[in-house]
Amino acid sequence: MGVIRRVFRLSAIGGAASIGAFFWATRNDKFVPMTLSDHIFHSSQFHKLNPSQNPTTHDLCIRRVPLSDINPTLLEKKGKLVEAFCAGVWSGWGYAFQRAYLARKYQGPETAEQLWSPSDLKSSSYEPGTIVTDHFEVVEKTPDRIVVRCGDSPRIREVRESDGLFEISAVVKPDEGVAEFGLKSCFFRGLGKAESEPMPSHIVWLHQQYTKLLSATAIGNVLR
Hints:
The chain crosses the membrane at residues 7-25. The chain is an alpha+beta fold. The protein has one domain. 33% of the residues lie in helices and 23% in strands. The chain is built from seven helices and seven strands; from the N terminus they run H-H-E-H-E-H-H-H-E-E-E-E-E-H. The protein has a seven-stranded antiparallel sheet. A hairpin with a 4-residue loop joins strand 6 and strand 7 (178-189). The longest helix has 18 residues, at 201-218.
């Protein structure tokens, strides 16, 4: 979570005006309850990566957009909307600082086949096995959601000390006239037995602000 601290430390340089702009831009991003019946807790990936069923830090951020605002070409074929939203998360400026930070540390011959540039991140369809900036690997894809493993380098295949799953979703609700976009996070300690959640409350708050930033900057990739 060190990179999240750096993002908000740099953002603070802009002062009150930048903070006000951030909260205005993310005003439509809402956190909603995420129950233990959620798909992510029953997935094969969760049980494999968290063998001791350690406590999790988890949340779900939702943004609803009128269908009239969505690029109509993304509604012509099921699955295109979630691909575009996912591409917006990783290629957008909300992820720019973390993308540059990881590139300085890990981009090189061993990671050359991964996605690094904004153009590649924007054009990818995010099939299972796709790796983003040596930190996220697509482990599941359906017409409505793309799930990535996070927490450490995908080159570490085994259970990790710090691990997690991050779900990007886009669900069309024609009866309500909206598309509902979601960013779902689930972090946990993979190795050994933990007695408490992996994040303290102040880091949870920072993580949630970062999630809202990713959502707000990604949504532009799906609009008309």
